Known about the structure:
Blueprint: E1 23-31, H1 34-42, E2 53-61, E3 75-81, E4 85-90, H2 97-100, H3 105-117, E5 134-137, H4 143-154, E6 158-163, H5 168-174, E7 176-181, H6 187-194, E8 201-203, E9 212-216, E10 227-231
Parallel strand pairs: 5-6, 5-8, 6-7, 8-9, 9-10
Antiparallel strand pairs: 1-2, 2-3, 3-4
InterPro entries: ADH-like_N (IPR013154), ER (IPR020843), GroES-like_sf (IPR011032), NAD(P)-bd_dom_sf (IPR036291), Trans-enoyl_RdTase-like (IPR047122)
Protein name: NAD(P)-binding protein
Pfam families: ADH_N
Amino acid sequence: xxxxxxxxxxxxxxxxxxxxxxxxxxxxxxxxxxxxxxxxxxxxxxxxxxxxxxxxxxxxxxxxxxxxxxxxxxxxxxxxxxxxxxxxxxxxxxxxxxxxxxxxxxxxxxxxxxxxxxxxxxxxxxxxxxxxxxxxxxxxxxxxxxxxxxxxxxxxxxxxxxxxxxxxxxxxxxxxxxxxxxxxxxxxxxxxxxxxxxxxxxxxxxxxxxxxxxxxxxxxxxxxxxxxxxxxxxxxxxxx
Length: 240
């Protein structure tokens, strides 16, 4: 956790599980994310606890938690960010704890990029007629990239992505239409040719002559006036 101006430190915390509207969960599995080091390096606030994604079993419940919402012994997965907010959901028996632990940061980051910044229609709100528009997902084989591909596909977009050749079949199975080798120096030209220079959305990074919107996972400044950028540091406060 973070404390004053000291380096990140290991510290035992007392967990009573007596919060009125909270639950105490015995953690079984966790997932590591880039946001863990970003919290240390870029958002140093006293009391922040490093780590976000987890899965486990409910062992105690607050008095105000409805019995129909949670129960002792329930398998759950969730996400907690620093000391701010947490979200939990029931974990199906068909899912392992390891699978459940990766449902947090990558999934919510993908949703924030697509629906809060790029303002795409959600899979539940797609109009009957959706224009065929490309979106570029750079590094589509990453955990966040895989979620972006699937959500963007459900939102009616045509997916272009990059990854290493060994992952071409993986990203295509998730919904990618065109896949290019991220290490190929001609990939940018191939993408512009495939989209006829009309690419306007990316998570992140190449555009047509008319510019567009770039959702990035690290701070980045566009040197092209027609390209708008926004850096996404996972923000759960808008969801809680």
